Amino acid sequence: QARLLVKALRGRGLKVLHTREPGGTPLAEEIRRILLRPGRKVTPVTELLLYEAARAQHVAEKIRPALAGGKVVVCERFTVATIAYQGSGRGLPMGTIFRIDSTARDGVEPNMTVVLDIPEARFQTRMEGKRFDRIEREGVDFRARIRRGYRSDYLEGLPLKNLRWVDADRPMSKVHDEILTLTLSLLGRGKKGSLSLKRRG
User: Fold this and answer.
1) Is the pTM of this model over 0.90?
2) To which H or E segment does residue 12 belong?
3) CB contact burial 5-31 (16+ within 10 A = b; e otherwise)
């Protein structure tokens, strides 16, 4: 879905950075390999610090320069994912997560976060035959906590969203159409193709 969105935005003449977390820079990609390698034991606090270290490098080296250059940034996962996974999933205190994440983001905030929601049964179907990474191997209970985390009250007071839920248990084209509509509305595309984008941080 991220690739489809990027292609559609570029087709409309926008400059777009497509990136991901953890990752996006050479150092952050190394951290990604550590975090996702199956069989590695990582404590919840260590996991949080590694994710946020990758984010700090990512923001400084890639996201902030892209925003300064007038690009639209499409990032696969950001702060809300950390709240859901390390907060609801791992049980770390939300206050701790907020403080560390705020330092890592250094003032950069997403203008919109899209959450793609599918039932557990659909996840199992889509993952058949695929190799699971360390996080994906956590199991049904862990994913259930994360799903609840995305809907938790902790997200209500955050300045990090527009948080938009999209039903991903539909044909790919339908999901893409909804995401594109949300994105173009956010970017303020007018009838003549004008663009007004508010950048934060």
Assistant:
1) no
2) none
3) bbebbeeeebebbbbbbbbbbeebeeb
- Dist CA 180 CA 175 (whole Å): 9
Q: Give the range among 30-39, 53-62, 117-126, 148-157 with minimum mean pLDDT.
A: 148-157
Question: Which tokens belong to 77?
Answer: 């996962």
Radius of gyration of the chain (CA): 17
C-alpha 44/C-alpha 12 separation (Å) is: 42
Nearest to 134, CA basis, from 23, 32, 61, 9: 32
Sheet strands (E) in the chain: 16-20, 72-76, 113-117, 163-167
Taking a C-beta distance cutoff of 8 angstroms, is the pair 191, 141 a contact? no
* Helix 44-58 vs helix 94-105: crossing angle, to nearest 10: 20
Provide the β-strand partners of residue 18. 74
Angle (CA) 29-68-104 rounded to 5° is 45
State how far the alpha carbon of 124 is from the alpha carbons of 14, 139, 162, in Å: 36, 10, 29
Condensed to tens digits (0 to 9), the pLDDT of residues 109-162 reads 999 999 999 888 887 787 777 888 898 889 889 999 998 888 776 665 555 558
